[in-house]
Input
Amino acid sequence: MNAFTQQHSHRWYKILSQHITRLVAAASLLLPVHAFSSSVTLLTDENQQKIELAVWKYAVDTVLLQQTLHWFRDLTQHTRESAAVAELSRLEFMQAQLERDKRRRLQLFEHCIASADRALMLDSKDVRGLFWKAAAMGKMAEDSGVLNALKMLRPMEELLLKVVTLDEKYENAGAHRALGRMYHKLPGFPISFGSNQKALQHLQRAHELFPRDVITRAFYAEVLLDTGHADEARRHANFVLATPIADEDALEYAEYVNIALAVVEKTGGSTLKVGNY
Output
């Protein structure tokens, strides 16, 4: 190739490259916004704060919860960000907990599970998706008949054990706490797979990780009492009763306060010893 031909070849190549670049740029303007969603995180600090506020106040500000849920559902409609979809599942879980009609409540928990499954299809190791799917299954098991509940328990256990392996601290050691509760409340072999020994192991670990967590202390107190450790059980129950509870947490924490009260009653009365627990 002579110098003249080579010079013109480079010129036409440059023009062609510029033309292709302009075509690609123009085509990109025609693509829907969600085509780029996989590369842009939806869980910005600001968005995560909005979610945390709605979750914290879910029982006292249902309007805020609904608004946050609708906003984030629209935002995650086309995303491939597993963590964001799992946070949608978390918001749906809170919505379902407030529903009083049993049939409608089960439907809402099914929506929660569907969102969690969507997150897990994007990332099978998404801790949030694993945890909130298990949590929703647990609530559905409470509302279902015995046979349906038994079908859910082993899959729940498997999900929670995965969470423990991937991130045992998630949701204040929520997987350890849930496993401890499950093993404590289920009958043992051959009826089911309950085990006070396993319950103690998981609740002790949850307590080690988050010693001031009221839910863990209530569950731990109950299993300690049932395994013959009355003094230690009373100490944990006293902690629960001595802990100030915000109005936003009152509805959810009522259950754990009642557990602590029952432990105190069974261990010798209602005297509350406030101190270091």
Observations:
- The radius of gyration is 26 Å.
